[in-house]
Amino acid sequence: MRKIISKFIIIFYFLFGLNSLAQFKFTGEVTDNFIDAKAYLKMIDDYKKSSVFITENIILEAEIDASGRFQFNGDFLPKENRLYKIYIDKCNSNITDSNHLLNDCEDSSYIIFIANNTDEIHFPLNSFSQMFCDLEYSRKQNVALYKIDSIRENLLGNLQDSKSDAQRKLIYFNYFKKIQEYGSSLDEPLAELYTYSLYSDQKSFSRELYLEDLKKSEYYDNLLKKLEKNYANSSYTSQYKNDLIKDQYPLLKEEDSSKIIILTLTILLLISILINYVFYKKRSLKKHNLNYKEVLSPQEQKVFELMNQKLPNKEIADVLFISLSTVKTHINNIYSKLSISSRKEINDYF
Q: What's phi and psi for 296, nearest 5 deg?
């Protein structure tokens, strides 16, 4: 009896327990000046617009309680990892306010992170009581990009003290490479994609360095392969590939050129097949519409009819009391007049 009960409990757990665990929970703590604010959870569809507050992408809204805590939870997020953003501000309780749409709210803070429907992540205040500078998570697959801002600040810290274009160029180059290396070190293609968006953006000072690197580096092709392997059906992957094509990435240009050549050859082959097919059909129709009795002489008609009876040339000569060479002459004339090339085509006329 105990064994039966144990089995029932195991089955019940697998049927209902796992489903109950399949939900997300994102929580956090805010500083005192944000206690009266609201928190918004949004899904980032376009990685290029991750810093912009787009109201259409908000999926949940949460009140911040008196202790400065907020929580988002549910079970409706995609199963695969995606980029998410928690945004908090005190500009206006109306999220359609122009300050939000223009991303111009000074009294605001946000965190961008990677998660899926089964993840639990907590964003506590750090030891200096700062927001979104630390995190606790339930799975190692979670990757938060909270460190990226501090890394950028450290890399650009000497920019104000730089005294020449050469110094600034060196700082920019160091920034570009370190950000790229940081993305790779996270071992998560979406994290690399996010860092890629920072240095490849049209408004980024590292844009020129990126375009120059694009001409000679296989890094971007390797990132594309990682995305195609882990996120084959994701809009992020197709967006990234399109961005590389727009930026004229040589490896993809060569791939596109090869595809164009193959496509052109395929089209030419199909056209050739179609032309030959049409020619063959016309020729066949012409043959079928010909009345051999109107085209051939009386003697040729006899030879033709005997050929249809599968008689060899010598027997045709014996039946018609003519020489073998005369039979061959008649056959050549028949082939020429009826546009046929062998005895196999004779049956088409009968």
A: -95, 155
DSSP state of 34: G
3-state secondary structure of 70: strand
Residue pair 197/50 in contact (Cβ under 8 Å)? The answer is yes
The DSSP code sequence of 316-334 is: HHHHHT--HHHHHHHHHHH
74: enclosing H helix or E strand: strand 69-74
* C-alpha span between 111 and 131 (Å, rounded): 9
Q: In what order do the strands lie in the sheet with 69-74?
A: 69-74, 24-29, 120-123, 136-137
Task: Please give the CATH superfamily to which domain 23-146 belongs.
Answer: Immunoglobulins (2.60.40.10)
Crossing angle, helix 219-230 and helix 250-289, to 10 degrees? 60
Fold classification of 290-350 is Arc Repressor Mutant, subunit A (1.10.10)
Helices (H) and strands (E) in the chain, counts: 14, 9
DSSP, collapsed to helix, strand or coil, labels residue 86 as strand
> Over the range 249-284, which residues count as b (16 or more CB within 10 Å of their CB) and which as e?
beebeeeeeeeeeeeeeeeeeeeeeeeeeeeeeeee
Nearest to 187 by CA among 221, 140, 118, 131: 140
d(CA 61, CA 84): 13
* Structure confidence by residue, pLDDT tens digits, 313-344: 999 899 889 999 898 898 898 888 888 878 88
How far the first Cα of the chain sits from its last, in Å, is 85
Q: What is the pTM of this model?
A: 0.66
Q: Give tens-digit pLDDT for 4-45.
A: 545 444 444 444 444 445 699 999 999 998 988 889 999 999
Task: Please state the domain extents for the chain.
Answer: 23-146, 147-248, 290-350
> Tokens 């000074």 belong to which residue?
106
Mind listing the pLDDT tens digit for each residue in 191-223? 999 999 999 999 888 899 999 999 999 999 999
Alpha-carbon gap, residue 116 to 139, rounded angstroms = 11
